[in-house]
Design a protein that fits this description.
CATH superfamily of the largest domain in chain B: Aldehyde Dehydrogenase, Chain A, domain 1
Radius of gyration of chain A: 19 Å
CATH topology of the largest domain in chain B: Aldehyde Dehydrogenase, Chain A, domain 1
Number of helices of chain A: 9
CATH topology of chain A: Aldehyde Dehydrogenase, Chain A, domain 1
Number of domains of chain A: 1
Oligomer: heterodimer
Number of strands of chain A: 12
Shape of chain A: globular
Strand content of chain A: 15-25%
Structural class of chain B: alpha/beta
Radius of gyration of chain B: 22 Å
CATH superfamily of chain A: Aldehyde Dehydrogenase, Chain A, domain 1
CATH class of the largest domain in chain B: Alpha Beta
CATH class of chain A: Alpha Beta
Strand order of the largest sheet of chain A: 9-8-7-10-11
Distance between the termini of chain B: 67 Å
Amino acid sequence: MSEVRKTYKMFLGNEFVRSESGRTYSLEQGKEIVELPQASKKDVRDAVSVAKKGYQSWSGLTPYNRAQVLYRLSEMIEGRKELYIKVLKEFGVKDSEAKKDVKDAIEALVWYAGLSDKWEQVSGNLNPVAGPYFNISHQEPLGVSFIFPRDNVSLKSFLLSILPPLCVGCSVICISQESGVLAILLAEDIHNSDLPPGTLNILTGSYSNIIEDISRHVEIRGVGVSEDFNNDSFTTIQSNGSDSVKRTFILNESLNLLSLNPFLETKTVWHPKGK
Amino acid sequence: MVEKWSYSSSIESSDIVSIEKKYGHFINGSFVSPKSKRYFDSISPSTEDLLSQVSFGNKADINLAVSSAREGFKTWQKVKPIDRSKYLFKIARLIQERSREFAVLESMDGGKPIRESRDVDLPQVSANFFYYAGWADKLDLSWGSVGLKPYGVAGQIIPWNFPLLMLAWKVAPALATGNSVVLKPAETTPLTALLFAEVCVEAGLPDGVFNLVTGDGETGAFLVDHVDVDKVAFTGSTNVGKQIQSSIAGSKKGLTLELGGKAANIVYEDASIDQAVEGVVNGIFFNQGHVCCAGSRLLIQESIQDEFIEKLERRMQQLRVGDPLDKNTDIGAINSKQQLEKISELVESGVSDGGAIYQPECELPGNGFWFKPTLFTDVQPAYRIAREEIFGPVLTTISFRTPEEAVEIANNTEYGLSAGIWSEKGSKILWTADNLDAGVVWANTFNKFDPSSPFGGYKESGFGREGGRHGLLSYLKEKK
């Protein structure tokens, strides 16, 4: 009997699922050809419905709690570091680069985990209004966000795309084609990391037949794309997104506070002071 | 029925204002005749008298203004930050000095009561320039050590409800952050913006840094779509905002939108009732209700509904509708005939849907555009008057039983600009504020504004903030 072979499934609402359409696409992994689900329009709608619940749970946790969950994810990845490196190499990444990629990915996770309970102290503030009022601007997560990470077989780059929204309490749906195997590997660690179901949802396959639905879905509040994203597709997202005044933006894939801004809504609260 | 107190009128003199018969666009530091060779009338909505004729901006006018702004941007970049700061401080001072003139002109051109243009609009206008003046040389302190830079040429389109104040909200942060500006004021209220151009000359602002093209929506569309505009900032209706968002899709232009609203003003049973009545009146009748953040949906807790409505109606009976230049006036003229028709149509739909209407007895002047302060009770959440932005002095009332229900009703709208909460219980206020989808929440107050206080919406009320440190980000992008 030969070795047991893994079936790759998408990750929606903490469950591993095939595409409702039954369609798949192939990737070359080392000497093998693997099949992954090709996400359909119905899968997008399903993802949004679980991501809405995920948003309620994830944004409802305390920032300290979210920080611990993200930190736990870094622990999980650390434990399976060798597997990630092996898979990266099977997709053509050089040994030294694969090791560095996983190390950087873990460090990005630790960085954002530690930011979860601090960003609001830096990005919000009291406003010195000219009158007897307490006036504060603080920030809240945007809601369900759809992310198109760079599709370049890098764990670090994948995480740098999805960590800013997760850090501030958004739930995320993302799609991965060329790095689908890596994304599903990550899903397994997410599954073990106490992220509430629906917080992070991973679709696989090409986005070309679902981009209309993503851009027009009113319950997706923001769409972020990587810098190398196809310009025509981004135009479609921005144009269709205007129906619901959707926030659309190019992701800042670096470790700084500005990466969080697109995922935040600023709320300013006034109250009089007096006796 | 409570009698309205008699009073003597106290009319602010309009002698202080001198209005030209015709105005050109303000481009590259001077007034120029329109390439379009077309002019349109600017009338007073309270008398329907012709005030002036202003230029209609066509594509050629916009091209000229944008290329002037491109040069202006280069000039402005060479000006030291401390000097940019000084120009803006000077503009703030000049506006303070000519404040009365601006206020009278604002009331004549737009119809708002002089009490408001004098005590709210103008002080806020100069305060905005003063506030952002101080940021111009401190941008590196605003968002930590991260590198930010101006977009370049900002195309700005502003509405007619707070003409000069919206100019200040747009122009002050844009210039402070090092952008140059092409501004398109609203069709019905261009006059104070034209006077502001004179102030820029007086302040010695370098040519091309601030440019002004008058016109209508068509002019605005030319500005938005111009390839050499790097950043678009729009305040106005949600429909037009969506069109703008769609038309610049894929262009890499920066965009901020400050759109419509349908704010809930929630009154809990433990509120200080008299205070809340005043706040609700201010929330909806301020500036004839021509306010995107107006508290147009009153949500009252069931147990106090009857008492509250009775007090509210009594208070509404005291409101004085009339001449905007009369210092006693609470509610001035509706900004335009078109807006009056829109309000009337929506109010008629409220009546035919089955809402109970209350309007105080009051005499309205003969000429001009007027609408009585209006209260609807027995309103179902599905009625058009409970869902659509009326942008007039019309308040709809819905009752609720629990805080959860209040929040659910409040958030059940595509808008998310502002909200009000009235309660004497701190924990309830904070819980409610946390759960409302609104960019500005006023607790035990309403319609308060300050240059240091960020303003802007959630959901379909737009994105980006104006005011405060957060407002700087609307005009800065990351250095790459």
